[in-house]
Every structure is written in structure tokens, then in C-alpha cells.
Amino acid sequence: MTLQAPGFWPPTGPEIVFLLLGVVALGSALLVVTTRQLVHAALWLVVCFGALAGGYLVLTAEFVAWVQVLIYVGAVVVLLLFGIMLTRAPIGRSADLDSGNRWAAALVALATAAVLVTVVVSGFRTAYAPLDPGQGAAKPLGSSIFRTWVLPFEALSVLLLAALVGAIVLSRTDIQGRK
Amino acid sequence: MNGTIQAPTIEYALLAPMLVVFGAAIVGVLVEAFAPRYLRSAIHVPLTLLSLAGAFALTIWQAAAKGIPTKAAAMGAVAVDGPALFIWGTILVLAFVSVLLIKGEDHFVAAASAVPGSAEEEQALHEGAAHSEIYPLVLFAVGGMLLFPAANDLLVAFVALEVMSLPLYLLCGLARRRRLLSQEAAVKYFLLGAFSSAFFLYGTALLYGYAGSIDLAKISTAVGSVGGQDTLLYIGAAMLGVGLLFKIGAAPFQAWKPDVYQGAPTPITALMASGTLVAAFGALVRVFWVGLGGLDWDWRPVLYGVAILTMVVGAVLAITQTDIKRMLAYSSIAHGGFLLVGVIATGKAAAQNASALSGILFYLVAYGFTTVGAFAVVTMVRDAGGEAWHLSRWAGLGKRSPLLAGIFAFFLLAFAGIPLTSGFFGKYAVFQAAVSGGALPLVIVGVVASAVAAFFYVRVIVLMFFSDPAADGPSIVLPSRGTAAVVGLAVLATVVLGVYPQPVLDLAHSAAQSLFVR
Q1: Model confidence over B178-188: pLDDT tens digits?
Q2: Could you read off the pLDDT of B269-290 as tens digits, one per residue?
Q3: Cis link prior to B252 (omega < 30° from 0)?
Q4: Domains of chain A (ranges plus CATH)?
Q5: Which residues in chain A are closer than 8 Å to B137, comparing Cβ atoms?
Q6: Quick check: is B3 in a domain?
Q7: What is the pTM of this model?
Q8: Is residue B439 in a domain?
Q9: Whole domain around residue B387: which residue ranges?
Q10: How many domains would you assign to chain B?
């Protein structure tokens, strides 16, 4: 991180794209919490996650970007929509989506954001990492997962198994007696 | 070929205890899937006990025959060093004992998905349904407990933390009686635990930003060499500390402990109070001493305050409790504070660190056995609706069942740290290290807190022996062989460690001698 950082002006193409994506992500995140329609909130979440994925792409983390698209844009949002659909939540405009605590929540969110931004800015103000294409491709990530991180990776699969067993224990209703 | 990935080097022999436990858990899941229902418990119990005993034997074999490794295993992910082996042995024995308790009586719910008080629940009870998935879940949790204190980088520590906690969240909600309380405990533990895990993860991310690595040794090097990014380091270390202190239940992160200990099935409470505490302390000491060792001038005052607060909160709030399990939970908080005294007692010299570490290790063994024994006694004092949880129900127990009351009184005296019990030598070892490390004021607070704590332990003893039993007092169930063995073993450990602690002290000392590998 001691490389000489080029100046911020004039901004390069990737920098402009990154900033625009950041604006899109921030704006859509605000819309997620302010919209009065549950389904719209889920759809704005797609935009927000998509913009984040774009940001990863600009930073040459292509594998992470596609995982973001697959897991968050694909699976998580679909799960949310299914949740809305199956629980018969109100689909149209509903007035009770606003909580009475919203000012307190906004305050906490702002304070958290302020702390995080301060920390990251003061930590990385002068840091500069050059973007080499291919750094974040599947191959380097795969080789580090299956070499350096192979043990935690396997432990994670154990964690998933335990979670599955637990979900079955808590939810199955057709467990019969010992007979 | 260009695209091949070099195979990682995994020291299977070193990791064998952990792998045996995880393997047995997975076999347990298969048993759950394929064995007929009436056979499952008959397969699970020996499988679980044998795997824990086997893992313990492998740990001993590793330490005795092959020596203590000096290098981290599995591509630097896991450090199987002296303290880790000692902690593994402790956790495995305590888990074995807890499993004996689990199999003892019917502590667990018949059908977890049934609404408490509903007809479905009645029916499940009537049919004698049972969740035999408990055994694999316990093994998963124990596997996580083994990985957590041996984790040599923060990512492994986080994964281990989750593997350890997730099954415990579930198991907390499976108590047979007082279902609503149990479910409340599980949800509370889950939400607060997830929150603290998030803190841990964020701290890891910030430390990665600071050091460029999540390896504890590399973070330690970076603390001395990287300048100008102190905000990242401090906030990262603080968040990591929050995550770890939550797991040991140190004040001000102790709020979950009484609720969870009260609501969880008592054998699971015993497992959490012993195994989880041991594992979390192992990890805490490793992270703070190895990873953030160069930062000790900054974290020591904070932990100093946390230790004082924890001892005082644990000891004072315990006085006001009327539920026996809540009282033991507050006592566990206070003991966490005493152990933190040992964490602070570091110094420049390696000998000082080794003596502090060996004090902590001995304390963990002593406290672990006593607490499992105490919870085992709690399972045996029954009312019509289950365990007699209210302290007033324990009045006059000494006249109805002198032996049991005597044993419980003995455990309470060990908690208080009376000489000739294991608790005394545990406290002595930790406080002595703290005094020689220059933390005398902290030791004074510790001794005062012990005196306050002794007050409520003695209060229970007085209640048991010097008040008249109620006419409809609780009955003492005849313990199953498992429960009797647990109580017997705990009494034995408490006596032996209190009268002749030298062998275990020596063992702890030689485990601590090499300190942590880096």
C-alpha cells in the first residue's frame, strides 16, 4: 500500500463508473426503506445489489460480482418475494409499513454509517492498490479456497449440515412415537 | 498442466480428535436418516460417547507420544499447540460428562414443532416421541468448540464460532418443561449471538484492512510495523473484543446468560457453562495474546475494567436471584470475571505469561467439572412440573436427602473458593499470576467479589440445611446411572483438584510452558 497514488483529477473511466454505481446503490437503498409497497422494496433491493455487483466488477473482483448476482440478486430476492407471496402479505400500498421508531432507527443508521465512513476514510485515505485484471477471477479464488482455506471451508459445510438438521428438528410435525 | 491446483498439506494426525468428532456427528446424521426409530437412541449414545472418548485418547496420545507441535497445522489454519491440546482434553472430558447427563432422563421436548400446551404436544408426549437429533447436534457443537480455541486466523475462528454456536441455539429451545421460557431463551440467544458474530466479523474485516492478513501471527507483526492506520486497528480490535467477550458472558455483554441458562435444558446448560466457556476463553486468550499481543498497553486497561465490572455484576446480581439456574448463571458470569484477571496478567517475561496461562487452564478444568456437577444435581431435584427451580423449594433439602444436599453444598463451596476444594486452587493460581503481573488492585477486587459471592453460596447452604422442609417439598429422583456417574465424577474431580492439585497443575504448567505457536 505504499505505491504512489495517482491524483484524483482527472478521474479515469473506471472511477467515474464506480462513483455512478455508488450513487445508484445509495439511492436505491434509500428507496428500499422509504417505499410504501413491500414488493417495490424487494425490487429496489435488486437494483441496489446489482449496483454493488457492478462495483465489484469495476474493482476486477469478477467472481465475487457474479456470486453477488447469483446469491443476492437471484436467490435472496426471490426468497423475499416468495415470502411475501406465501404469507399473503399485503401487496399494494400499505400505510403501516412505517414504524413509530423510524427517527430513532434513522439516527442509529446515520451514526453507524458515520462511524464506518470515518474509520474507512481514516484508514484508507492514502492507500492505493492498482487494479490488475484477473486478480478476482475464479481461478485464484478457487486455488486459495481449496489450498489455504480448505479447513474452514469444510467446517462451513459442517455448519450448513448442522443448520439443516436443526431446521428439521424445529419444523417437522410428522414425527411419530417410538412404536 | 497449467491449471492444476497444488494439493494442500493437511496434518490429519494432528487434527484427528476434531475430525473424529465431526465424523461421528455426520455418521449420527446418517443414523438419523436410515436407522429405524426404535434403534436410534441405542446407536447414538454409544457412538457419541465412543467418539468423544476416542478423540480424548487421540489428544492424549498426541501430547504424550508425539510431542507438542511447534508449527500451525492445515496450511496455518489451526494451531494445535500445548494450550490447545490441554483445552481439547478438557472440552472432550466435559462434553463426555454432559452427554452422560443428556442421556440420563427425559430432559428434551417430544416434538419441538408442536405449540406449547396444544393437543399435538399432548399427543407427541403420549406417543413417546423423542428428538434423537440432539446427539449429532451436540457433536457438531463440540467439534466447533475444539476448532475455536485452536483457530490460528480470524476467519477460522469465525467459522468455528458459528459451528459451535448454531447447534447450541437450537438445543436451547428443546427443553421439555417450561417450553415458552425455553423457546424465548433460544430466540434471545440466537439474536444476540448473531449480533455478536456480526461484531466479530466486522472486527476481522477492519483488522484485515489494517494488517493485510487475518493470520494472527501476521496481525501481530503488523501491529509493530504498520503505522498511520491506528483507527482501523483500534476499532477492529474493539469489535473483535465485543464478539469474544459476549461469548464468555463478560459484563456488559452478560445479559443473555441468565435467560439462556435458565431456559435451556439443564444438560445443555451444563455443556454451555463448561465446554463453551472453556473454548471461548481459549480463543479469547489466543486472539488477545498472539494476535494483539503488541497492543497490550491498549487493551489491558479495557479488560481491567471489564474484569472488575464482570466480577461485581456477577457476584452482586446473583444475590437477588430466586431461580437456582439463574443463580448458577450469575455465578458463571462472576467466574468469567475471575478468569479475565488471568488474561490481564501478562508481562514482558515468558515465564509470567506461562504462569498466567497455566492458572487460566487450571481454573477452567476446576470450574468446568464443578459446574457440570452442580447442574447435574439440579436435574435430580424434581417437582411435579419438572425441576424444582425456585430456591424456596430447596429449603430443608438437607433433612430429606442429606447426601445430595451435602454434595451440592460441596460444589457451592468450591464455587466460592473455600480451601480443600478445586475452586480455591483455581483462584489462587489466577490471582497469584495477577499479583506477580502487577495487577494487585484487580486481585483485591477479585477477593472482595469472591467474598460477596460466598455470601449467596452460603445462603443456599443455610437454606438447605437449617430451614424446615416444606410439606409438599420436591422429590429427589433416583438418578440414572449416567447422572450418578456425572455427579460422582464431579465430586471426585472437585476433591482431588482441591486436595492434591499438583498433577493437574503440573500438566497445565507444561502445556502453558511452550505458550502459543505463532
Answers
A1: 888 999 999 99
A2: 999 999 999 999 999 999 999 8
A3: yes
A4: 13-131 (1.20.120.1200)
A5: 162, 165-166, 169
A6: no
A7: 0.91
A8: yes
A9: 16-512
A10: 1
